Amino acid sequence: MTRFIRFATEPGVPSTAPDTHPSVRRGILQEDGLIRLPDGSTAALNRVKLLPCVYPSKIVCVGRNYADHAKELGNAVPAEPILFFKPPSSLLAHGGVIVYPALSELVSFEGEVGVVIGARCRRVKAADAGSVIAGYTIVNDVTARDIQKRDGQWTRGKGFDTFCPVGPWWTPKEELDFASFRVRTRVNGELKQDAPVTDMLFPVAAILEYVTACMTLEPGDLIATGTPPGVGPLKAGDTVSVEVAGLGTLENAVAAEI
Ligand code: MG
Asked: In angstroms, what is the span from residue 2 Cα to ligand 1's centroid?
């Protein structure tokens, strides 16, 4: 399985560093723990800082895309996809720390499958969606639920720095059996979410048609496909992991804002 990663060659580079940052590289993580770079050179994973595996111009998210999740929060099952953005400033690498904002008293995890866009596209028909999908990764759509509800719209509740862990890597769609994916989220090892992606109300192809009827997507853009039931609170000191068999495990600790 091909594991595409991004990393920095020196410590201290933030998760939000763009590809134009002089220390940022892309490569393929091999089974032996070495990263193979496009120029044929290698780097050791344990000597670099892992970054989010994509650097999206936008992160388009689908809300309430699993009926049982909509219901668990007392919401209606939507008749068409509910879209919102998370800002690129919310990106966080696998292993990075989710900062629990002082402004919130109810921060929740949302384990999700992420779609990595492979080509600039607009007005893609569902039947052609495969031609613009590069591959898949894992996203944790961390949410300040109290602020989301209070604001009415979701920009702040979904948009805090560190609220978009993604990775650890992405894998080309050709190497994956998407229909076999299950999203399993654990907090401190305890299973909280466990559902098949086949439970999605709007499948990925339909989401892509809906999104690109509105906006142009760019290579590297990320679509978070919604979370299954079982969402719940995080607290400082927790470790949250989202596992999708075939894609790996995205794990992050939670710490209070200081
Ligand atoms: Mg979500």
From this structure: 26
Structure tokens at 229: 């039931």
The residue among 160, 62, 156 whose CA lies nearest residue 112 is: 62
CA of 110 to the centre of ligand 1 (A): 5
Query: Identity (one letter) of the amino acid at 156?
Result: R
- Cα 62 to its chain centre, rounded Å, is 11
C-alpha of residue 185 to centroid of ligand 1, in Å: 13
pLDDT tens-digit map of 48-93:
999 999 999 999 999 999 988 888 888 888 999 999 999 999 999 9
CA of 158 to the centre of ligand 1 (A): 9
CA 70 to ligand 1 centroid distance, Å: 11
Q: Which residues in the chain land under pLDDT 50? A: none
Residue 54, phi-psi category: left (phi > 0), alpha (psi -120 to 50), beta (remainder)? beta
CA of 113 to the centre of ligand 1 (A): 10
Helices (H), ranges, 45-184: 67-72, 145-151, 155-159
Show the CA angle centred on residue 134, arms to residues 186 and 80, nearest 5°: 70
What distance in angstroms lies between residue 119's CA and the mean position of ligand 1's atoms?
24
Cα(54)–Cα(45) distance, rounded to whole angstroms?
17
